[in-house]
C-alpha cells in the first residue's frame, strides 16, 4: 500500500541516534542541528530517557484517564518547579495542535466568545481552530475556514485593541518567537500591551510555547523574557524528546468541570515517564544554563560568517538569514557535509534547533562545515 504522499522527503534514512548525532542505514554519521523540528531536547537515546521508558513499559504502558495516575501529578509538579509557573493547572494531550485546539476551546468556554486573534506568519497546528489561526491558507480546508479568526501584523497594538474592544474575541494566540514563520519576535511593549488588553477585555492570552518553550529560548518559557501572565500556555515538541506528548498550563481563573476536556491517550503512563525523564535531565544536566552559554557562543561564531546578514532568535532557537534562498545550502549540508538543519517560510533563513545539550565543540564543527558548504554553493551558483 502506498503512503499518502504529503511530505517532500530528503533521501536519508536515519536508523539510530546518540546525543547530537544520528546515523543512517549505511552507518554514516550526521550532526543534528535540527532535532527533528525542535523535538529532540535532551539528545537522541539519552540513557535517562531510555531507562525511564523501558522501566515504564515493563511495568504499565497505558491505562485510561478513568483511574488514578500519579505520574501525571508528578509531571505537573516538575513543570511547576522548573518553569516557576506557580498555581497553573495541567491538562495533558498528545501533540502541539491538540494542545492549541484545547487552549482555544477553553478560551471559548471561559469567555462565551468565539473569535480568535492570531498573527501573520504564525503557525499553530493543523486541526480545526489551530489551523484556522495559522497564517497559511494552503493548509486551511473549507471545513476549518468556518472558524472566526482575524490575523494581524505582529506589533500592531492598535489593531489588537480595535479587535478586542468589539467584545467577541475569546483568545489572542501568539508564538513569542515564531518557529516555522522564520524566528521573528514582536517587541516587549507589544507583548505587554496585548497582555493588558486581554485582561481588560475578558480575552484569554494564549502563549504558544510548542516550539519556543521548554528551555529552548534560554528561559523555561519564551514569554518569561517579558512581563506578561498568559492565561493558557501550550507545550509539546521538546516535552517528550520524541515521545508524543503535549499539554496546556491553565490559569486557575479558568475553572475545570468534569467532561469539559478529554482524550484517550493524553497523559498516559509512558508519555509521563518520557516527560519526567526530559525534565529530570534538563534539571540534572543544567541544560537551561547550557542553552544560554552555547546559544551565545553560536551567535558569536555566526557573526564571523560574512554571508550571514542577520541572526534571529534566542538561546538554541536560532535563525541565520542569508541574502539568498537556502534550499541549495541545506541540501549541500545534508548530502555532502552530513549536517541536518531546518528551513522556514522565510526561504532565506536556515533554522538551527539542536538538542539542548549540544556543546561548543559541535558548534565549532558546524561553522567549519558551513564555511565549506558556502564555498560549494557559491561555486555552483557562479
Ligand atoms: C509553534 C507551533 N505550534 C503548534 C505546532 C503544531 O504541533 P504538532 O505538529 O505537534 O501538532 C507547531 C509544530 O510545528 C509549532 O511549531
Q: Output mean pLDDT.
A: 97
Overall radius of gyration? 21 Å
Number of helices: 12
Bin the helical content: 25-40%
Classify the beta-strand content into a percent band: 15-25%
Poorly predicted runs of 5 or more residues: none
What would you say the CATH architecture of the largest domain is? 3-Layer(aba) Sandwich
Enter the CATH topology name of the largest domain. Answer: Aspartate Aminotransferase, domain 2
GO molecular function, one term: pyridoxal phosphate binding
Family: Belongs to the class-III pyridoxal-phosphate-dependent aminotransferase family.
Keywords: Aminotransferase, Pyridoxal phosphate, Transferase
Cofactor: pyridoxal 5'-phosphate
Describe the structure.
Its cofactor is pyridoxal 5'-phosphate. Keywords: Aminotransferase, Pyridoxal phosphate, Transferase. The chain is α/β, with parallel strands linked by helices and 382 residues long. It has two domains: 14-46 and 287-381, Aspartate Aminotransferase, domain 1 (Alpha-Beta Complex), CATH 3.90.1150; 47-284, Type I PLP-dependent aspartate aminotransferase-like (Major domain) (Aspartate Aminotransferase, domain 2). Helix content is 37%, strand content 17%. The protein contains twelve helices and 14 strands. It has helices at 35-38, 47-59, 70-83, 96-111, 128-132, 142-145, 157-165, 188-200, 269-284, 287-303, 327-336, 360-381; strands at residues 14-18, 21-24, 29-32, 89-93, 115-119, 149-152, 169-174, 204-208, 232-235, 246-250, 308-314, 317-322, 339-340, 349-352. It has a seven-stranded mixed β-sheet with strand order 4-10-9-8-7-5-6, sandwiched between helices. A hairpin with a 2-residue loop joins strand 1 (14-18) and strand 2. Helix 3 (70-83) runs parallel beside helix 9 (269-284), helix 10 (287-303) packs parallel to helix 12 (360-381) and helix 11 crosses helix 12 (360-381). The protein is globular and about 60 Å long. The protein starts with 13 loop residues before the first strand and ends with a helix. The mean pLDDT is 97.
